[in-house]
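Workshop exercise sheet. Pairs work together: one partner reads the sequence aloud, the other fills in the structure field after running the prediction. Swap roles for the next sheet.
Pair: D.N. / O.F.
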Amino acid sequence: MSKRAATVYAFMDESGDPGSRSRSSASKHFILVLVETTEPETLAQELKRLRTALNVSSVFEFRFHDTRSVERRAAFFVLLHALNVRVRAAVVDKTKLADSFASFDTALYGFALGELVMRASPNDLHDAILVMDGEGGETTEKTLNSIRRHLTQLYEQRKRVRAFRKLIARNSRNEAGLQFADMVAGVLAERAEHGESPYDDYVDSKMVDLWEYPPK
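Structure field:
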């Protein structure tokens, strides 16, 4: 009997918002990141060791925009480079989207994630578990349901095997994989805004797919 393949956990987080482009505070880009691993417990253990090495609280949360220290950011991305993870990312220029995305729209999550899933090898995410950052409640459930509907339509239209066994939400404070996804999304947002980031090489070393909309 063949051995069952290890379960892939795809930790999803974003940078920017899926909101109206007409608002002065709206971001120009929406960035969606998947950090994939079959060893989520290793990510948690390594972040624990990193916190000890950096002499920060045992509950310190690595979030790109809150982790301002160059030392902490650099140490984090050196760790990322050493781990057995894959990164997929979508960078969407919201100014180029159709008018149907004009308001705060959970459909943008499905749009970005759907393209990443369709571009992946069917085996890469088959029977995987998608973990998104969320506190639960109505907004999180609305987003998850929107993603489920959009992916189901894509599977049928493109005759693709279903990618995820389960879609769940977790609090990033307690989920190391989501902290990795947040930090990677921060680098890609910095790149989208400024053309580059000091941590590009670390992220690119783990990147298996980077989808940009519209294509350049």
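Discussion prompt: Helices lie at 40-54, 70-82, 107-119, 137-157, 176-194, 200-204. What would you look at next?
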